[in-house]
Specification:
This protein is α+β, with helices and mostly antiparallel strands. It is about 40% helix and about 20% strand. The strands form two sheets. It has a six-stranded mixed sheet, sandwiched between helices. A five-stranded mixed sheet has the order 7-11-8-10-9, sandwiched between helices.
Length: about 425
């Protein structure tokens, strides 16, 4: 059980505190409730761009990393479709340095044309390397708009087009910052060798003076229910064919999410999963095959992707996947099979609570999703899933009409 306390500053910043005196360290995670789903469809990639811009210096701190490193700290950040998370860890006696750094860049980022140009170049180069020039790099740029027609999940976090970042101007950047980088739109979690009293004092000192610039009300277009299967076939200069199948599934805080996640583990997580055991090891239809869920805050995707073995036609490979799905839809999983994936989930969740940084991140994530207590209750939700629910979700989610399939073919391959 991870014990924690919560309080909210007058400007709306939510603060979660976990005290752990068994460690000499402390960690902070500040999550802003903004991801690529909040972007203008004609100006995508801004959430990820800001992940970079936030390290470009603030009004009182020209170089973010220098004072943190002097205090013995490390930091990083990530952006998703749903949120942006900045996190750090350092010796507990130096925790105030973290409050100083994070509050100053929330208070006023040091916008400059030079910083924007540098980070714009960094992000566009990352776009090229990860999505344009890397084999299979554009797969999700193709699969997302196939699966989503209206919802902003239809573009990846890095952006829909590289030109959107190349053409980003200071006016748009400032507007994005002013709208989303607001204490009322953030959660701060602190974990480690601290006290709630100390965290409250530091939060009041460093964050409370920052004004709340208004309530942001998210109003995203709801994705229509998919009623027909969708298909896309592309050819690229890649070494082998790939197949991607994506079904619409529950959003992250829906009770059905946990059954769907366990179903994905039964089908394709690890060498003992059904798809890997039967289609990779036994029948050798695929050389690699995996199944996973996106875990999106809004309705997400249940994905199976794989590389057919040499000489196997891609439509035959797809039929082999569908045959295995059909078997699971016809018969409940064995007790041992379900328990095994629950055990893996439990081990993963326990491992994620072993250090203070992970605990800070998990607490902030839970709170931005609606309840920091998720850090303690999540395994109970997984453990409560029954074989009957797995069977039900297999029928509901893995329905042909909800599936978007992409054949990603190697040019000049024999198929």
């Amino acid at each position: 059980m991870i014990h924690f306390e919560k309080f909210t500053l007058n400007n709306g910043l939510r603060v979660v505190v976990h005290c752990d005196n068994s460690t000499p360290m402390a960690a902070m995670s500040i999550i802003y409730d903004v991801g690529s789903r909040d972007e203008d469809p004609e100006k995508t990639g801004f959430a990820h761009l800001f992940e970079h811009l936030m390290f470009g210096g603030s009004v009182n701190i020209p170089k973010y990393d220098e004072p943190l490193e002097k205090a013995g700290g490390i930091n990083n950040a990530y952006t998703s479709n749903d949120l942006t998370n900045y996190y750090l860890s350092l010796p507990a006696p130096n925790i105030e340095t973290g409050f100083w750094l994070e509050s100053d860049r929330l208070y006023q980022l040091a916008f400059s044309e030079k910083s924007l140009e540098v980070q714009r170049n960094v992000v566009t180069e990352e776009f090229r390397q990860t999505h344009l020039n890397q084999p299979y790099g554009d797969a999700w740029m193709l699969l997302r708009p196939l699966a989503y027609t209206i919802h902003p999940y239809r573009w990846p976090t890095i952006g829909k087009e590289i030109s959107h970042i190349q053409n980003a101007v200071m006016e748009d950047v400032r507007a994005f910052y002013n709208k989303y980088y607001n204490p009322n739109n953030a959660v701060l979690a602190v974990a480690g060798n601290v006290t709630t009293t100390l965290v409250q004092q530091l939060a009041e000192k460093w964050f409370a003076p920052i004004e709340n610039n208004g309530q942001h009300c998210r109003n995203l277009p709801a994705e229509p229910v998919q009623t027909e299967a969708r298909f896309l076939q592309v050819e690229r200069e890649v070494p082998a064919d790939m197949i991607y199948k994506a079904w619409k599934m529950h959003q992250r805080n829906d009770p059905g999410y946990y059954a769907a996640d366990l179903l994905s583990d039964i089908l394709g997580n690890g060498k003992s999963s059904r798809l890997f055991r039967r289609l990779v090891m036994e029948k050798k239809v695929f050389t690699e095959l995996e199944c996973y869920v996106t875990g999106s805050f809004d309705p997400g995707l249940f994905v199976i992707s794989g590389r057919p073995s040499e000489g196997v036609k891609i439509d035959d490979a797809e039929k082999a996947i569908l045959d295995e799905i059909s078997k699971l839809q016809d018969q409940k999983p064995e007790n041992g099979e379900l328990q095994k994936v629950k055990n893996k989930v439990e081990a993963h969740l326990k491992f994620s609570q072993m250090n203070v940084l992970n605990k800070a991140i998990n607490l902030a994530f839970g709170e931005i999703l609606g309840d920091a207590g998720l850090i303690n209750s999540e395994f109970e939700k997984y453990n409560a899933v029954t074989k009957e629910q797995i069977l039900q979700v297999a029928g509901e989610v893995l329905h042909p009409s909800k599936c978007s399939t992409m054949y990603y073919l190697a040019k000049n391959s024999n198929r």
